Amino acid sequence: VQLVESGGGWVQPGGSLRLSCAASGFTFSRYLMRWFRQVPGKERELVASISRYGRTTNYAASAKDRFTISRDNVKSTLYLQMNNLKAEDTAVYYCNAENYWGQGTQVTVSS
After folding, report:
1. What is the pLDDT of residues 33-75, one digit of tens each?
2. Which of its termini does the chain have fewer beta carbons within 10 Å around, N or C?
3. Do residues 110 and 87 lie in contact, with contact meaning Cβ atoms separated by under 8 Å?
4. Are 48 and 33 in contact (CB under 8 A)?
5. What would the mean pLDDT of 63-92 be, rounded to a whole number?
6. Nearest to 80 by CA among 102, 111, 98, 99
7. What is the pLDDT of residue 102?
8. What is the pLDDT of residue 34?
9. Contact yes or no for 37/18 (Cβ under 8 A)
10. Rg, C-alpha atoms of the chain
11. Could you give the strand order of the β-sheet that contains 17-24, starting from the edge strand earlier in sequence?
12. Helix (H) or strand (E) holding 23
């Protein structure tokens, strides 16, 4: 099983980023998928989740109305579109499928 995140980087407040998570080694469409984020010294925080076929999505209050989670089961890829980014969104972002985790991608929001 492998989950590989990409798309992180530095962006100014108000900017946008699109994270991707390429999955392999398991049947992607059978898993609910989640994005988490973590700041050093704090617990990992659930940002968003999406059901197996994308019909149901859920967001943390901090992400609602700014982030959009989506998936492409043909490409076995999970996405997180992040708009109107704020300094407090700075964190390492991880994709998750049950007990499987990616290595994370750093998102830094600063001026």
Report:
1. 999 999 999 999 999 999 999 999 999 999 999 999 999 999 9
2. C
3. yes
4. no
5. 98
6. 102
7. 96
8. 98
9. no
10. 13
11. 2-6, 17-24, 77-82, 67-72
12. strand 17-24
What is the rounded average pLDDT of the residues 99-110?
A: 97
Structure tokens at 75: 């490409």
Q: How far apart are CA 79 and CA 92, in angstroms?
A: 15
DSSP state of 16: -
CB 4 within 8 A of CB 103: yes
Give the span between the Cα atoms of 20 and 7, in whole angstroms: 6
Give residue 9's identity as a one-letter amino acid code.
G
Closest CA to 31 of 10, 54, 15, 6: 54
DSSP 27-89: -GGGS-EEEEEE-TTS--EEEEEE-TTSS-EEE-TTTTTTEEEEEETTTTEEEEEE-S--GGG
